Amino acid sequence: MPTLSRRFIQCALIHFAIGSTLGGLILIDKGIPQIYPLRQFLPAHTELMFFGWVMQMIFGVAFWIFPRSQGRRKNPEYAWITFGLLNVGLLTFASGLNLIGRILELLSVLSFIKLIWQRAKPFEVAKSLRNR
User: Is the Cβ–Cβ distance between 11 and 56 less than 8 Å?
Assistant: First the structure.
Protein backbone atom coordinates (compact mmCIF):
# COMPACT_ATOMS: atom_id res chain seq x y z
CA MET A 1 0.00 0.00 0.00
CA PRO A 2 1.45 3.40 -0.94
CA THR A 3 2.43 5.76 1.85
CA LEU A 4 -0.12 8.34 0.71
CA SER A 5 -2.96 5.80 0.95
CA ARG A 6 -1.86 4.86 4.46
CA ARG A 7 -1.80 8.53 5.49
CA PHE A 8 -5.26 9.15 4.04
CA ILE A 9 -6.64 6.11 5.88
CA GLN A 10 -4.86 6.94 9.14
CA CYS A 11 -6.16 10.52 9.06
CA ALA A 12 -9.63 9.19 8.23
CA LEU A 13 -9.53 7.03 11.37
CA ILE A 14 -8.36 9.96 13.49
CA HIS A 15 -11.17 12.14 12.15
CA PHE A 16 -13.61 9.30 12.76
CA ALA A 17 -12.53 9.06 16.41
CA ILE A 18 -12.75 12.83 16.96
CA GLY A 19 -16.05 13.16 15.06
CA SER A 20 -17.61 10.24 16.94
CA THR A 21 -16.51 11.70 20.26
CA LEU A 22 -18.03 15.06 19.35
CA GLY A 23 -21.22 13.30 18.26
CA GLY A 24 -21.42 11.45 21.56
CA LEU A 25 -20.94 14.67 23.52
CA ILE A 26 -23.66 16.36 21.47
CA LEU A 27 -26.01 13.46 22.28
CA ILE A 28 -25.18 13.77 25.99
CA ASP A 29 -25.95 17.48 25.73
CA LYS A 30 -29.38 16.65 24.31
CA GLY A 31 -30.11 14.46 27.34
CA ILE A 32 -28.55 16.71 29.99
CA PRO A 33 -28.93 20.30 28.74
CA GLN A 34 -27.33 21.80 31.87
CA ILE A 35 -23.86 20.95 30.60
CA TYR A 36 -21.96 23.46 28.45
CA PRO A 37 -23.98 23.77 25.21
CA LEU A 38 -22.19 21.39 22.89
CA ARG A 39 -24.67 21.64 20.03
CA GLN A 40 -22.59 24.48 18.64
CA PHE A 41 -20.11 21.80 17.57
CA LEU A 42 -22.63 20.08 15.28
CA PRO A 43 -21.17 21.61 12.08
CA ALA A 44 -17.66 20.52 13.10
CA HIS A 45 -18.97 17.02 13.91
CA THR A 46 -20.68 16.77 10.53
CA GLU A 47 -17.59 18.05 8.75
CA LEU A 48 -15.25 15.63 10.49
CA MET A 49 -17.52 12.67 9.84
CA PHE A 50 -18.21 13.42 6.17
CA PHE A 51 -15.04 15.02 4.83
CA GLY A 52 -12.67 13.76 7.50
CA TRP A 53 -13.84 10.17 7.77
CA VAL A 54 -15.74 9.25 4.60
CA MET A 55 -13.99 11.36 1.98
CA GLN A 56 -10.49 10.64 3.23
CA MET A 57 -11.21 6.93 3.36
CA ILE A 58 -12.50 7.08 -0.22
CA PHE A 59 -9.48 9.09 -1.36
CA GLY A 60 -7.02 6.70 0.30
CA VAL A 61 -8.61 3.51 -0.97
CA ALA A 62 -9.14 4.91 -4.49
CA PHE A 63 -5.51 6.04 -4.73
CA TRP A 64 -4.42 2.58 -3.64
CA ILE A 65 -6.76 0.57 -5.88
CA PHE A 66 -6.84 2.52 -9.14
CA PRO A 67 -4.19 1.21 -11.51
CA ARG A 68 -0.92 2.95 -11.97
CA SER A 69 0.21 4.11 -15.38
CA GLN A 70 3.00 1.94 -16.69
CA GLY A 71 4.15 0.61 -13.34
CA ARG A 72 4.53 3.86 -11.44
CA ARG A 73 2.25 6.52 -10.06
CA LYS A 74 2.24 9.82 -11.87
CA ASN A 75 2.57 13.06 -9.94
CA PRO A 76 2.93 11.79 -6.35
CA GLU A 77 3.64 15.37 -5.26
CA TYR A 78 0.29 16.41 -6.72
CA ALA A 79 -1.39 13.68 -4.70
CA TRP A 80 0.24 14.98 -1.51
CA ILE A 81 -1.08 18.45 -2.34
CA THR A 82 -4.58 16.92 -2.49
CA PHE A 83 -4.00 15.38 0.95
CA GLY A 84 -2.78 18.69 2.36
CA LEU A 85 -5.64 20.73 0.90
CA LEU A 86 -8.25 18.38 2.33
CA ASN A 87 -6.79 18.30 5.83
CA VAL A 88 -6.05 22.03 6.01
CA GLY A 89 -9.58 22.67 4.72
CA LEU A 90 -11.02 20.42 7.44
CA LEU A 91 -9.08 22.14 10.19
CA THR A 92 -9.93 25.57 8.80
CA PHE A 93 -13.64 24.78 8.65
CA ALA A 94 -13.64 23.21 12.12
CA SER A 95 -11.93 26.29 13.54
CA GLY A 96 -14.73 28.54 12.31
CA LEU A 97 -13.43 29.88 9.00
CA ASN A 98 -16.18 28.17 7.03
CA LEU A 99 -15.81 29.78 3.61
CA ILE A 100 -12.04 29.35 3.44
CA GLY A 101 -12.35 25.77 4.65
CA ARG A 102 -14.97 24.96 2.01
CA ILE A 103 -12.84 26.49 -0.74
CA LEU A 104 -9.84 24.40 0.30
CA GLU A 105 -11.99 21.27 0.44
CA LEU A 106 -13.41 22.02 -3.01
CA LEU A 107 -9.88 22.46 -4.36
CA SER A 108 -8.88 19.12 -2.86
CA VAL A 109 -11.87 17.37 -4.45
CA LEU A 110 -11.11 18.90 -7.85
CA SER A 111 -7.46 17.98 -7.43
CA PHE A 112 -8.41 14.40 -6.56
CA ILE A 113 -10.69 14.14 -9.60
CA LYS A 114 -7.85 15.31 -11.84
CA LEU A 115 -5.47 12.84 -10.19
CA ILE A 116 -7.76 9.82 -10.49
CA TRP A 117 -9.24 10.72 -13.88
CA GLN A 118 -5.98 9.94 -15.67
CA ARG A 119 -5.78 6.59 -13.85
CA ALA A 120 -9.34 5.44 -14.60
CA LYS A 121 -8.43 3.25 -17.55
CA PRO A 122 -9.10 -0.40 -18.23
CA PHE A 123 -6.42 -2.93 -17.34
CA GLU A 124 -4.26 -4.24 -20.16
CA VAL A 125 -5.74 -7.70 -19.60
CA ALA A 126 -9.24 -6.35 -20.08
CA LYS A 127 -8.14 -4.66 -23.30
CA SER A 128 -6.70 -7.87 -24.69
CA LEU A 129 -9.87 -9.80 -23.81
CA ARG A 130 -12.04 -7.25 -25.59
CA ASN A 131 -9.97 -7.47 -28.77
CA ARG A 132 -10.57 -11.23 -29.17
Answer: yes
